[in-house]
Amino acid sequence: MRKLFMAGNWKMHMTESEALNFVKQVKPLVADVTDKDMLICPPFPVLSRMQDALKDSNVALGAQNMHFEEKGAFTGEVSGPMLKAVGCEYVIIGHSERRQYFGETNEIVNKKLKAALNHDLLPIVCVGESLEQRENNETMKVIEAQIRESFKDLITADFKGTGADLAINDWSQITIAYEPVWAIGTGKTASPEQAQEVHAFIRSLLPKEVAQKVRILYGGSVKPDNVKELMAKPDIDGGLVGGASLKPESFAGLCVFD
Ligand code: 13P
């Protein structure tokens, strides 16, 4: 049985004081949540303060991106060891906004994924099709290529093999997020059925030993009022949430429902 996982991706929102205020307010609202894992991914400048603020809470800390190199002349970039040092457990990799605005390819995502695992960070690897691709009936083709290339060397060559290239234990560290680009920040959510179809497809691509254990999150206009029906689907194991994760009551509303 996979435990539900609610992750907030704050994107480029929240100054330090806003972030501290959020944590102060959200902590009591989610203090009793034990049936879900919870995570917030603030921008880099506030991570260190968040480490202190979230201490002794049931909300984990993650980053929104990382570089694949450990250190070096990469102006403006942040490495895995730096994220570990400020208390990050998780890192989002290959978000569609990184792909769309910053030229991240599946090859880069693959390097980042390997670097995250090497540095003991728990990667949340994002995939998702554009509106044009969905309308052209290319969704499954695009998703398969994203998974195949992003997980290159981590899934065996025949792609439905044993997963021997990545230790079976390592797969327990990986989360996948399906985020259809047309549903992100648009208020237009994939229907639970549409999301379930892609989630089941993604699961079918994973090594069979691990397929039932890997959590697959849905992202794209998840809100307190649609979270329950999405999470009711068998292959949807949580949410990666942007806008609705920015307000304490709203984040809590994603985490507290029955
Ligand atoms: P919204 O929840 O704002 O649509 O964003 C989804 C997302 O991109 C989370 O990573």
UniProtKB/TrEMBL annotation:
Amino acids binding substrate: 9-11, 185, 221, 242-243
Keywords associated with the record: Cytoplasm, Gluconeogenesis, Glycolysis, Isomerase
Gene3D superfamilies named among the record's database cross-references: Aldolase class I (3.20.20.70)
Active-site annotation: 95 (electrophile), 179 (proton acceptor)
A cellular-component GO term for this protein: cytosol
Pathway info: Carbohydrate biosynthesis; gluconeogenesis; Carbohydrate degradation; glycolysis; D-glyceraldehyde 3-phosphate from glycerone phosphate: step 1/1
Main localization, broad class: cytoplasm
GO BP field: gluconeogenesis; glyceraldehyde-3-phosphate biosynthetic process; glycerol catabolic process; glycolytic process
InterPro entries associated with the record: Aldolase_TIM, TIM_sf, TrioseP_Isoase_bac/euk, Triosephosphate_isomerase, Triosephosphate_isomerase_AS
UniProt-listed Enzyme Commission number(s): 5.3.1.1
Family (UniProt): Belongs to the triosephosphate isomerase family.
Function according to Swiss-Prot or TrEMBL: Involved in the gluconeogenesis. Catalyzes stereospecifically the conversion of dihydroxyacetone phosphate (DHAP) to D-glyceraldehyde-3-phosphate (G3P).
Name recorded for this polypeptide: Triosephosphate isomerase
Originating organism: Candidatus Saganbacteria bacterium CG08_land_8_20_14_0_20_45_16
